[in-house]
UniProtKB/TrEMBL annotation:
Pfam families: ThiS. Keywords: Cytoplasm, Molybdenum cofactor biosynthesis, Nucleotide-binding, Phosphoprotein. NCBIfam families: moaD (TIGR01682). The gene is LOC116215824. Belongs to the MoaD family. MOCS2A subfamily. InterPro entries: Beta-grasp_dom_sf, MOCS2A, MOCS2A_euk, Mopterin_synth/thiamin_S_b, ThiS/MoaD-like. Pathway: Cofactor biosynthesis; molybdopterin biosynthesis. Heterotetramer; composed of 2 small (MOCS2A) and 2 large (MOCS2B) subunits. GO terms for molecular function: molybdopterin synthase activity; nucleotide binding. Acts as a sulfur carrier required for molybdopterin biosynthesis. Component of the molybdopterin synthase complex that catalyzes the conversion of precursor Z into molybdopterin by mediating the incorporation of 2 sulfur atoms into precursor Z to generate a dithiolene group. In the complex, serves as sulfur donor by being thiocarboxylated (-COSH) at its C-terminus by MOCS3. After interaction with MOCS2B, the sulfur is then transferred to precursor Z to form molybdopterin. It comes from Punica granatum. This is Molybdopterin synthase sulfur carrier subunit.
Length: 100
């Protein structure tokens, strides 16, 4: 069961809602703020990357610190916040990178 993310049907107020499971990857400062390098996230079918980000900020409020300047990647390609996620997608949270 570990490492597997299965779509599921959950009951909310008596209605069945289809969900998708997304693997979220945290890099650099995002990993520091959350304390994890990756995690599964289950969201309703039709959710966008921004919906996923809202769920993540609710779970890890410290992500708000970098929310306005982070970049999202879906399945190893940069993406907009309005992109719909699909089951088994991989969503990367990429904070700004600095260096010299």
């Amino acid at each position: 069961m570990e490492g597997q993310m299965e779509p599921q049907t959950t009951s909310s107020m008596g209605a069945n809602t289809s969900t998708v499971a997304v693997k979220v990857l945290f890099f650099a400062r995002a990993r520091d703020l959350t304390g994890v390098s990756d995690m599964p996230l289950v969201v309703p079918t039709g959710s966008t990357t921004d919906d996923c980000l809202n769920e993540l900020v609710a779970k890890f409020p410290s992500l708000e610190e970098i929310r306005s300047c982070m970049v999202l990647a879906l399945n190893e390609e940069y993406t907009s916040r309005s992109t719909t996620v699909q089951d088994k997608d991989e969503l990367a949270i990429i904070p700004p990178i600095s260096g010299g």
